Amino acid sequence: MYKKIIFLIVFFTFIFSVINARTLKEILDSGYLIIGIRNIPSDVVYQPDIPNKPGFCYELAKSFADYLNVDMKIKIVNYFSDYWTKNGKNMLKNNLSGIPDIYNSIDIVADIITVTDQRKKLVKMIPFIENAELFFTRKSENISSYNDFKGKKIITAETYNFYTTLINELNKRKLHYIINKISIDNDKIIFLEPYKKPSKNDVEILLIPEGIKFNRYAFYYQVILKNADISILDSFSFFSKIFNTYTFKENLKPLFIANNIGYLAFCTSPKTLELNAVLGNFMSLFKETEKFNLLFKKYIGINYYDYLDILKRTR
Questions:
Q1: What distance in Å separates the CA atoms of residue 62 and residue 33, rounded to the nearest whole number?
Q2: Which of 109, 123, 132, 195 is deepest in the core (most CB within 10 A)?
Q3: Helix/strand/coil (H, E, C) string of the chain?
Q4: Known Gene3D superfamilies for this protein (predicted)?
């Protein structure tokens, strides 16, 4: 009987430690902060193979860990959709409630995640930078409005919020579109289904479906190579590439933002109230320091306040 009681205590202690996100006290007592982050070829997220420039989100999370006076441990996240998965299902696509499973094993998601009302229902979002969903094209293209999208090819990915934004903006303007699902192999577009030929007034969407791996640089190169005419990304990532990559700067230009200026955010469990409050306070204070501006300039190539001015001009 005694052994059975001990077993049950150990069992339930283990279960609750797994299913509950760690509190701020537990983080401080342990001496480390666990972040979830993708290892992707993006200097604004995390690229550990480049020691002098490991990623804006990584360095920002490290600054928060230093603020707490703890070490930082990293859990690599394979897919963006993993941030929104519960019991093997995508909570956003299936309109599920609850908290994503990832918070069973990490304290903070440190990634470029656009703040949306749907996402805010699932997690606590702590904004760290102003951002907009931005269309871009080749410098040689004469595009000034959505109406000029007719007859053009727009490349995006199903897992991105940009795809939803694109569809909403096209529907709002009653622009007809067709969707051709693709993958990319050595810069060549591979159609995954029988090709649907658009009319001259159709907008053709080249869509990378959920579950298909792709290089984040692919959208830039596909536009430069004229396999697509337009793409849409977050302005934070786009300007980091434009100001730091000669090929992109020489060939690409921003068009206009798809909607109002919003934010990118780190995410936490809505149940870790003290952690969320401390992280939110840290972000507010850190953004006012020269250290934040230097970090921003290191990765984006321009002053933080100059970036805000550019965003206002692309409205």
A1: 9
A2: 109
A3: CHHHHHHHHHHHHHHHHHHCCCCHHHHHHHCEEEEEECCCCCCCCCCCCCCCCCCHHHHHHHHHHHHHCCEEEEEECCCHHHHHEECCEECCCCCCCCCCHHHHCCCEEEEEEECCHHHHCCCEEEEEEEECEEEEEECCCCCCCHHHHCCCEEEEECCCHHHHHHHHHHHHCCCCEEEEEEEEECCEEEECCCCCCCCCCCEEEEEECCCCCCCCCHHHHHHHCCCCCEEEEEHHHHHHHHCCCHHHHHHEEEEEECCCCEEEEEEECCCCHHHHHHHHHHHHHHCCCHHHHHHHHHHHCCCHHHHHHHHHHCC
A4: Periplasmic binding protein-like II
Looking at residue 221, its pLDDT comes to: 96
Contact criterion met (CB below 8 Å) for 205 and 178: yes
Structure tokens that stand for 8 in this block:
């049950």
Residue 215 has pLDDT above 80, yes or no: yes
- pLDDT of 65-104, one tens digit each? 999 999 999 999 998 999 999 999 999 989 999 999 999 9
Please give the backbone phi and psi of residue 182, each rounded to the nearest 5 degrees, phi first.
Answer: -140, 165
Q: Using CA atoms in the order 139, 144, 146, 147, what is the torsion angle rounded to 10 degrees?
A: -110
What does the pLDDT average to over 222-251? 93
Q: How far apart are CA 157 and CA 51, in angstroms?
A: 29
Residue 250 C-beta-side C-alpha neighbours within 13 Å: 3
**Would the pLDDT of 205 be above 70?**
yes
Residue 250's DSSP bridge partners are none
d(CA 304, CA 141): 29
240, β-bridge pairs: none
* Domains in the chain with CATH codes: 2-131+262-313 (3.40.190.10), 133-257 (3.40.190.10)
